[in-house]
Amino acid sequence: MPGGSNLSAIKSYLSKSWGIGTQCADGVLLLGTTMEPVKRLGSEAEAKTWLDGAVALYAQRSGTSLPSAPSSGPGGGGGGGGAVMNSEEFLKFQAEQHQFATQQIELHSHCLKKDSRAGDLKYDAEKANSLNLQARLDAISHEHGDFHVDGTLPVSDALKARQFDSTWNWAQQDTLLMWYDIIHGKLTTVDCEITARCIDVLNPADPDLYQFMQYSVDTCDPTPGENYALAKQFGQQLIENCREVVNSAPLYKDGMSIRINSHVAPLTSQQ
What we know:
The protein has helices at 7-18, 22-32, 44-62, 87-111, 118-144, 146-151, 166-183, 192-202, 207-218, 226-245, and strands at 251-253, 256-258. By secondary structure, the chain is an all-alpha fold. The chain has a two-stranded antiparallel sheet. A hairpin with a 2-residue loop joins strand 1 and strand 2.
């Protein structure tokens, strides 16, 4: 093609001179790739003459009737008036070109061993799946109501995540059991069993644990009886032991995790 005959200029010429739309112009150019000229097109007039021949052959093979070719003036382009088509003829022509372009696409897809309907098939499958899921959700909402459905939606947030494990829970329970055993007079002296229970509390101790214990100690009134004063004293001592070991790593021996071997203050009755 001579200089200036780019794709935009060619499609503009086909549109103005022949009333051919973008998709049909692609069909003409595709057919033109099989019509190699005998020599290089040296001027714009030669290029337009070659394009007119491609349009005529395209119309012949596609069975489309086109208006007569534009007259070539000194400039090699169309005359003062372009091709004229009424709307009915243009729509018919456009439909025929679309059909021809579709046939070309199907032909190339077959050569490439690709199914041009693959995208539509996937869309239909996803649409059917979406409708099925929506129908199930509607059935649940109809049966239980929107309040139940909204209540079962996840509300968790990674930033609000908090870890609870059995060790953490048992440590709090053990402290409460020892606390009330002292208040009710069931625990008055420290023996091997009580020492083991204290170690079970100290080993998983963390700041949350002794803060939890500190609240009970601070709110305990020692005046109702000696057991309350003893519980307050023992509880404070256990808190201090937790503070001492909270930053130390656990020790493992015989399959058991033992973090401390520190001395637990004796628990003696003031009676």
